[in-house]
């Protein structure tokens, strides 16, 4: 089994039965150290796999975008759970991941685009620009009279 070597100073002495010499070996505590620091990544991966956004596309960046979107939503849900735990809410009051993703999707769909402010009719703007350029037919006809 290959595993990364953590900066653990735990070294034990073990006698080899054949040679009767002591060898310095790393202790098994490294596995616990590794698992302690990798728990969040494994949790995130397993939660993403529960309700993955399944989209089929030939474009690679679509899959990447939806994976990042899933990561963001799951991370927000974990923060939401931590916030609920700090506020002493019961497990029944905390929203499940599926419901959280559904409400998030509904909120994003309902948000829509912002409406632009209407400053007035476009016609008035065009008349003013024509007057400045000297191309307004109404002004030319009045000046000829």
UniProtKB/TrEMBL annotation:
Regions of compositional bias (Acidic residues) in chain numbering: 12-33
Domain PiggyBac transposable element-derived protein span(s) in chain numbering: 33-74
A UniProt-annotated Pfam family: DDE_Tnp_1_7
InterPro entries assigned to the protein according to its UniProt record, in alphabetical order: PGBD
Domain of life: Eukaryota
Region of interest (Disordered), ranges: 1-34
Protein name (record): PiggyBac transposable element-derived 3-like protein
Species name: Labeo rohita (Indian major carp)
Taxonomic lineage from the root: Eukaryota, Metazoa, Chordata, Craniata, Vertebrata
């Amino acid at each position: 089994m290959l595993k990364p070597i953590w900066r653990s100073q735990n070294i034990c002495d073990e006698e080899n039965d054949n040679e009767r010499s002591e060898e310095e070996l790393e202790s098994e505590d490294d596995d616990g150290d590794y698992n302690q620091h990798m728990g969040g990544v494994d949790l995130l991966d397993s939660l993403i796999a529960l309700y993955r956004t399944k989209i089929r596309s030939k474009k690679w960046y679509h899959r990447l975008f939806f994976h990042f979107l899933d990561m963001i939503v799951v991370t927000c849900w974990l923060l939401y759970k931590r916030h609920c735990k700090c506020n002493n809410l019961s497990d029944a009051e905390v929203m499940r991941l599926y419901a959280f993703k559904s409400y998030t999707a509904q909120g994003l769909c309902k948000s829509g685009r912002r409406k632009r402010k209407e400053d007035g009719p476009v016609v008035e703007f065009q008349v003013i620009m024509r007057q400045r350029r000297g191309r307004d037919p109404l002004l030319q006809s009045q000046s000829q009279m």
